[in-house]
Amino acid sequence: VQLQASGGGLVQAGGSLRLSCAASRRISSIDAMAWYRQAPGKQREPVAYITNTGSTDYANSVKGRFTISRDTSKNTVYLQMNGLKPKDTAVYYCAAFVSAIDYWGQGTQVTVSS
After folding, report:
1. How far is CA 44 from each of CA 25, 82, 107, rounded to the nearest angstrom?
2. Average pLDDT estimate for 52-81
3. Confidence of residue 68 (pLDDT cuts 50, 70, 90)
4. Torsion over CA of 80, 86, 91 and 95, rounded to 10 degrees?
5. Residues 45, 57: contact at Cβ < 8 Å?
6. In this structure, which of 6, 18, 20, 23 has its CB flanked by the most CB atoms within 10 Å?
7. Cα(94)–Cα(19) distance, rounded to whole angstroms?
8. Across the strands, what pairs with 48?
């Protein structure tokens, strides 16, 4: 599975961004997809998760602000990020999980200025 992430950028605190992750195969055949992020000097951490049945889960730090969704017709998963905070600054990665094998896209930088 090849994944192409896009949509990062520079935004002021309180602003919004939408990240996209386009997959090279039908996402309905992928067990789950997720967004992770890695801030400078920190470990990569999970942000949001969506299964092939549409179930979602979020890190506590983004609940109520971020929404993960998918468009099966476009084989794309999205991360809508509202109410961005400087601590959300990180490189965001999308991941796909198929039969216990994980695939990763290249990261997209999100920078939130105060």
Report:
1. 25, 21, 11
2. 97
3. very high
4. -40
5. no
6. 23
7. 9
8. 35, 58
Map the chain to HEC letters.
Answer: CCEEEECCEEEECCCCEEEEEEECCCHHHCCEEEEEEECCCCCCEEEEEEECCCCEEECCCCCCCEEEEEECCCCEEEEEECCCCHHHCEEEEEEEEECCEEEECCCEEEEEEC
Residue 98 has pLDDT above 90, yes or no: yes
Q: Which residue's structure tokens are 């990569």? A: 44
pLDDT at 100: 84
Amino acid of residue 52: N
Return d(Cα 24, Cα 81) in angstroms, integer.
Answer: 24
